[in-house]
Amino acid sequence: MKRMLSAVLFAIGFAAMPLVAAAPAQAQNPFTIFERLFGPRWQPEAPPKPEPPREREDPAVGTVYLSAAAADADTKRQEPPQEYVVVIGDTMAEQLAQGLAEAFFTEHPEVAVIKKVRAASGHVRQDFYNWVTEAGNIVANDRATAFVVMLGVNDRQQLRDEKGFHDFRSDRWREIYAKRIDDFLAKLKEKNTPIYVVGMPAVSLQRGSADMQYVNEILRERAARAGVRYVDIWEGFVDEQGQFASTGPAMDGQMRRLRAGDGVHFTRFGSRKLAHFVERDLLRLFESRVRSPFLPYGLDQGPNLSGVRPAIGPVIPLTTPIGQSRVLEGAAEKADLPPVRIDENTKKTLVEGVPQPPVAGRADDFRWPRPEASN
Description:
6-stranded parallel sheet; about 35% helix; Rossmann fold
């Protein structure tokens, strides 16, 4: 009997050992014994978290053409093209061209934007695409008021010549790269057309931004050597600390996303802001060819005669570039130009500093006693 009782107690104790050992684990398990037997209680599924709203971008406005002939043949244009801006470069140049087309679409419909771009190209891989040769084709076959060049974002790689490969940033790399830029700009200058070299922007990777600054140093140096304009865009796409900024003030005055998700390319708002830096120089170029800031278009008055009041006074637009003005009184006159005549009363006031004689009864007649009282 005692043996049977001992066996029963041993069996009960042996069976209870897993329960005791499992107690700490069960305390950590969120499921109860009933959930173990019959499954977990039903709980309603949590609604999915809403995605943050994406910034809506309106479709781009303005047309970018492949040639001047295509721009001339477009019957949907508001005005026939009179100015042809040819944008040359890689994918960044293509976004710049679209930004320029949008910039000129409303205010300057007489400007046509033409793109000559090749994705993934640059001055390093001439075996892939030779921009010096292509520049010769552009000069020979395309009409252009101005050339805008944005090229270099793909050039952070080894460069090869007849002596072998040269690492990026090496002395030999810089020497060859500068020579290719010189040849490219020299070929474009054969058309005797203004050239604008656009610098590279900051990118999201810190090392990449440092490389872009290195490329900009060379672009600025070679542009100055060639006598062409270098357009610096760096400050437009960095924050107050000078670091890459994906968002910033856009042309509509709002804070917008300016850079694409890859940290290199631009959004539509970014392309429009990029174009703004070049747009200013192009407008100065267009306005510098205005006939005269002093007379309206279509008016030919002939020489000024002394004592004869002109029908229309001088009209001076506020957008006239500095340096476009008449010769000052007293300056040497050119032999091939007719002498400029000026009214004697005006000459006494403006040149000699003699005040105009007072007019009786007018508010600026400060004589005392009055002429009427002296009679």
